[in-house]
Design brief:
Elements: E1 32-42, E2 53-64, E3 69-73, H1 80-88, E4 95-100, E5 103-104, H2 110-119, E6 120-123, H3 137-148, H4 153-167, H5 183-195, E7 201-205, H6 213-230, E8 233-238, H7 241-247, E9 250-255, E10 258-263, H8 265-270, H9 275-282, H10 323-327, E11 333-334, E12 340-341
Parallel strand pairs: 3-8, 3-9, 6-7, 7-8
Antiparallel strand pairs: 1-2, 1-4, 4-5, 9-10, 10-12, 11-12
Helix pairs in contact: 3-4, 3-5, 4-5, 5-6
Length: 354
């Protein structure tokens, strides 16, 4: 599952806008699009200056086409989960536009916003915390259908039974409570609930990070099968670059609220342009412990999101930082095909080389 890359394109022209990080669908209109989206929270830090705001997301442009998977990776605090919550509608942006099928969500009527919520659903990192412990699996999956209305009880029951079969849950498990299921089974319930309203886009926030390795593969394969069967689009949020690069058509790397690089999994694993991406790739354990390789390491702590560094936000930890990095903020520019990166002095050589 990868997007073809034009290997002959070698230019690195600056881009004024990066809204087309993912190619639009055949209709020309992305299923979901974020344009200059920013989200700030009031700082509650003890020694924060008055009026300080935490810039969780700082001007992100992103598009998700129907039937595709976009992966978002980065270390804790980079803003990837906030990005997902913004797309679902659990948070409202401080600035920017969120377009759903070409319509600005901020200008939708109340009825339109309600309908849009059913079209964009979410899978959470902790499936147990996301499920009501007092409700049976049947009631959990049926709840979105009851909220939406328009279906008789018999129709809802038939829909729940069909969904259970699709995600690999038995009829017996439908009458169990969440605590009576394994972690993988609970995540199957989460996927079934997300699909109950015929959603077109599912925001999956670390959906397999709490599961055993063997169960992770089962859930990821299930998600791929459901995508092929229903034409789903996913926004896959994870800190695991290997998992995301396997399932995603396009991978977006975030650092301190900004997109610093985007491309296919092949782009990011074999020829990362940004020093931060290279450090993430080098942090992936090598399956062959006998291999001795040089790795790119970053030092220091993640800067405060309420007072990010000037210029390039990664410069305080970047091994290739120079004077210009403190003065000018880099913009996303092309490194061939769909590969984009925001770096004044991009990485030379392959990951793992000295």
């Amino acid at each position: 599952m990868s997007v073809p890359v034009d290997r002959t394109a070698t230019g690195a022209e600056p881009r004024g806008k990066a809204a087309s990080l993912v190619a639009p669908s055949a209709t020309g209109v992305p299923l979901a699009e974020l344009v200059g989206v920013a989200k700030e929270f009031s700082s509650s830090a003890l020694f924060a200056r008055p009026g300080a705001a935490v810039q969780a997301v700082a001007g992100v442009d992103l598009a998700v086409a129907a039937g595709t998977t976009v992966g978002v990776v980065g270390e804790s605090g980079c803003g990837k989960s906030t990005l997902g919550r913004l797309l679902v509608g659990l948070e409202e942006p401080t600035r920017g536009e969120i377009l759903l099928r070409g319509r600005d969500r901020a200008t939708m009527t109340r009825a339109e916003r309600r309908a849009a919520r059913y079209d964009v659903q979410m899978m959470f990192q902790d499936p147990y915390a996301a499920l009501d412990p007092r409700m049976s699996v049947r009631r959990i999956v049926e709840e979105p259908l009851r909220a939406r209305g328009g279906m008789a009880r018999r129709e809802r029951r038939a829909r729940v039974a069909d969904l259970a079969g699709e995600v690999g849950l038995s009829a017996i498990q439908l009458d169990r409570l969440p605590h009576e299921l394994s972690g993988g089974q609970r995540q199957r319930v989460g996927l079934a609930r997300a699909l109950a309203t015929n959603a077109s886009l599912v925001v999956a926030d670390e959906p397999v990070s709490a599961l055993d390795v063997s169960v992770r593969a089962q859930i990821l394969n299930l998600m791929v099968d459901m995508q092929a069967e229903h034409g789903l689009a996913y926004l896959m949020i994870s800190h695991d670059l290997a998992v995301v690069s396997w399932i995603a058509d396009q991978v977006v790397v975030m650092y301190l609220g900004k997109v610093v690089e985007s491309g296919t999994g092949d782009d990011l694993f074999t020829r990362p342009a940004h020093h931060y991406t290279r450090a993430l790739v080098d942090a992936v354990p090598d399956p062959d412990p006998s291999q001795d390789r040089a790795v790119s390491r970053i030092s220091g702590e993640l800067p405060s999101a309420s007072a990010p560094p000037s210029g390039c936000r990664f410069r305080t930890r970047c091994p290739g930082a120079q004077e210009r990095c403190a003065r000018d903020e880099p913009v996303l520019r092309s490194f061939g095909g769909s590969h984009l990166a925001a770096c004044h002095f991009p990485v030379s050589g392959e990951p793992g080389e000295g």
